[in-house]
From TrEMBL:
The modification 4-aspartylphosphate is found at residue 56. Residues 141-206 form the HTH luxR-type domain. Residues 5-125 form the Response regulatory domain. One of its GO terms (molecular function) is DNA binding. Keywords: DNA-binding, Phosphoprotein. SMART domains: HTH_LUXR (SM00421), REC (SM00448). It comes from the Bacteria. PANTHER family: HTH-TYPE TRANSCRIPTIONAL REGULATOR YHJB-RELATED, NARL SUBFAMILY. This is Two-component system, NarL family, captular synthesis response regulator RcsB. Gene3D superfamilies: 3.40.50.2300, Winged helix-like DNA-binding domain superfamily/Winged helix DNA-binding domain. One of its GO terms (biological process) is regulation of DNA-templated transcription.
Length: 209
């Protein structure tokens, strides 16, 4: 039986170890490579062929590749022979829909557990696509967070990671003015007025874990 060759991409060592440990118990899968940054993943994909790439949505990026929607779009366009499965904690429905539009074959939330990941891999190996549903938990805060647009979500995700407006603008290839406007719009949607309140809101909702 030909094994399904997989590359794992996540900046959390515990996640890499856990996923590898589960997959190694299933003889049809071969974890051939592990990477922790966007650049390392691109290098691995250029170096050898993989059937499936299990990737996190948020990874340490760089000014060349970035991460998130921009990076995943780049991967799908440049490596069409690879099936991309996003393994993430994101729950924003607009972002999930955007990932499907970009052409990823699957999205699975990390809190769905390893059985859901294995089910998704089985579906991908049979040519089916998989989209893990939002959990819908968190009440009003969750509703407000998931109402963000894709661009607002990207800006907030990078803001929470500690980047300044000018740094976010450079990574997303937008102007400082545009980033500031999208950040301000996100504040209005979330009902906060200061950066401190914005950060607290995102952390309380575990929106970018």
């Amino acid at each position: 039986m030909k094994k399904i060759k997989i590359v794992l991409a996540d900046d959390h060592a515990v996640v890499l170890m856990g996923v590898r440990g589960v997959l190694e118990r299933h003889p049809q899968y071969q974890v051939a490579c592990e990477v922790r940054t966007s650049g390392e993943l691109v290098e691995a994909l250029r170096r050898e062929h993989f059937d499936i790439a299990i990737i996190d949505f948020s990874m340490p990026g760089d000014e060349v590749y970035g991460d998130g929607v921009r990076f995943i779009g780049y991967l799908v366009r440049n490596f069409p022979e690879v099936k991309f499965l996003v393994f993430t904690m994101l729950s924003n429905r607009l972002v999930l829909d955007r990932l499907c539009e970009l052409g990823v074959q699957g999205v699975v939330r990390k809190d769905a557990g390893m059985p859901q990941l294995l089910s998704a891999l089985d579906a991908l190996s049979k040519g089916r696509r998989v989209l893990s549903p939002c959990t819908g938990e968190g009440g009003d805060l969750h509703s407000r967070l998931t109402s963000l647009s894709v661009k607002e979500y990207e800006v907030l995700r990078l803001f929470v990671s500690g980047l300044r407006v000018c740094e976010i603008a450079r990574l997303l290839r937008r102007s400082d003015k545009t980033i500031s406007a999208q950040k301000a719009s996100a504040k209005r949607r979330l009902g906060v007025t200061t950066d401190q309140e914005l950060l607290a809101c995102c952390l309380e909702g575990h929106f970018f874990d």
